[in-house]
């Protein structure tokens, strides 16, 4: 499906559009961007996670509504599943825990155990590791009184206990951060905030390298005729790549005037014509080196390392603590994690290695599966890269419908729910296109 978006231009509008599409778990295969002057125009070629064309008119109208909401700076959608769509935004019903630390096996398990002992329930969490660094954002509720932790003394107690755990594994010269914040209006999108945390933690300065075949190449040239800097990025193609790149450029205060994004096989090509927000181009080698390091880090933070385990369970207290304990006790280290609550069910995706960062032994996986089943959950093993499994589809057409969502990413689970529910809601204007004074959508 091709989407054309015309709108009044402002700094950050490109990120708003890309963020809205990725939150709906759409795959952007190509994009053409132009934002010279006061008007913004972008063309997106999008499919669902299985690479299929989107044809349902109600689903198209829902996408249109999400894009329109993002242009207005709003996250309010008039459908029964709007809360699930906004899962990547900081919740107004939870306390938010943000942490950066030196990466080590068992870190997420220890944090989860402390929260469980303090009667706090984790409703969602996202954790990334990159270049020996780790960052995590958790949305936490008071278990005895669902909602954010309202008592400031209790919040201070929780933070103090967490600080003790994290600080115990760091020497004086090692950096780390941890803070607990209450709900506030206008909080940053969770994955964008993770990028900001890791950038502030300077994960891009480390000298370690990822697995072979994950190399990202960045080149920068100056277009003197138009006073642009031209940024070219070649990397492995994967979901949310465009979001990660645009997010970083926006937070580095660069403005994208023109861009072309495409892919061939497993390789993605991105070209951006950019300037600093103050109108200057990249003139010094220090500036070029800085943006190169930050872009490479942004691209590689989300790269899948290790084996992916999808875990589904009934929502209950201590669940994350129990699951991460099982992984730690069986010698598994978490390279990346995403956990979300969907009604009475919790779905988690964990990318795991052994304690040394090597491939996981099959015996370890079987032991984990058995112990998770004893806890009332279910484990399904995906390929090294989630996108590989999604591209190939399920191995059997007779796969139980109830089991299928657990094998998908959290976003894909949401998308499957959206398609099933799409016939149950109608928007005021159900035409496959809409135009008003300040924006235009052509799908």
From TrEMBL:
Signal peptide: none annotated. The keyword Repeat applies. Keywords: Repeat. PROSITE patterns: ACT. Residues 96-177, 308-387 form the ACT domain. InterPro entries: ACR1-12, ACT-like_dom_sf, ACT_dom. CDD domains: ACT_ACR_1, ACT_ACR_3. One of its GO terms (molecular function) is amino acid binding. The keyword Cytoplasm does not apply. Gene3D superfamilies: 3.30.70.260. Binds amino acids. This is ACT domain-containing protein ACR.
């Amino acid at each position: 499906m091709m989407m054309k978006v015309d709108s009044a231009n402002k700094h950050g509008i490109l990120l708003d559009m890309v963020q809205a599409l990725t939150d709906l778990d759409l795959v952007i295969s190509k994009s053409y961007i132009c934002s010279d002057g006061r008007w913004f125009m972008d063309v997106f070629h999008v499919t669902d996670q299985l690479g299929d064309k989107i044809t349902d008119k109600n689903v198209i109208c829902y996408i249109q509504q999400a894009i329109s909401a993002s242009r207005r700076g709003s996250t309010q959608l008039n459908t029964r599943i709007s809360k699930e769509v906004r899962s990547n935004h900081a919740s107004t019903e939870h306390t938010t825990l943000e942490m950066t630390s030196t990466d080590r096996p068992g870190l997420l398990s220890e944090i989860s155990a402390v929260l469980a002992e303090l009667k706090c329930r984790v409703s969602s969490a996202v954790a990334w590791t990159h270049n020996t660094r780790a960052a995590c954002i958790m949305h936490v509720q008071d278990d005895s009184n669902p909602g954010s932790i309202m008592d400031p003394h209790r919040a201070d107690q929780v933070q103090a206990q967490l600080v003790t755990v994290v600080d115990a594994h760091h020497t004086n010269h090692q950096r780390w951060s941890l803070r607990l914040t209450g709900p506030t209006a206008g909080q940053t999108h969770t994955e964008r905030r993770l990028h900001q945390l890791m950038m502030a933690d300077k994960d891009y300065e480390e000298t370690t390298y990822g697995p072979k075949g994950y190399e990202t190449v960045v080149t920068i040239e100056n277009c003197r005729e138009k006073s642009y800097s031209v940024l070219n990025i070649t990397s492995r193609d994967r979901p949310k790549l465009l979001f990660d790149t645009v997010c970083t450029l926006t937070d580095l205060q660069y403005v994208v005037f023109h861009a072309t994004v495409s892919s061939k096989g497993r390789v993605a090509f991105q070209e951006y014509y950019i300037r600093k927000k103050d109108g200057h181009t990249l003139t010094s080698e220090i500036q070029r080196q800085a943006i190169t390091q930050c872009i490479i880090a942004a691209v590689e933070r989300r790269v899948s390392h290790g084996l992916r385990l999808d875990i589904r369970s009934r929502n209950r207290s201590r669940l994350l603590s129990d699951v991460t304990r099982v992984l730690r006790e069986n010698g598994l280290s978490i390279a990346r994690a995403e956990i979300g609550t969907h009604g009475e069910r919790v779905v988690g995706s964990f990318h795991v290695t052994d304690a040394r960062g090597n491939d996981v032994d099959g015996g370890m996986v079987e032991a984990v599966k058995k112990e998770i089943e004893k806890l009332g959950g279910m484990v399904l093993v995906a390929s090294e890269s989630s996108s590989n499994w999604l591209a190939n589809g399920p191995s059997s057409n007779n796969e139980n419908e109830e089991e299928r969502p657990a094998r998908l990413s959290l976003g894909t689970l949401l998308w499957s729910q959206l398609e099933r529910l799409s016939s149950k809601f109608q928007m005021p204007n159900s035409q496959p296109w809409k135009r008003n004074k300040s924006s235009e959508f052509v799908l």
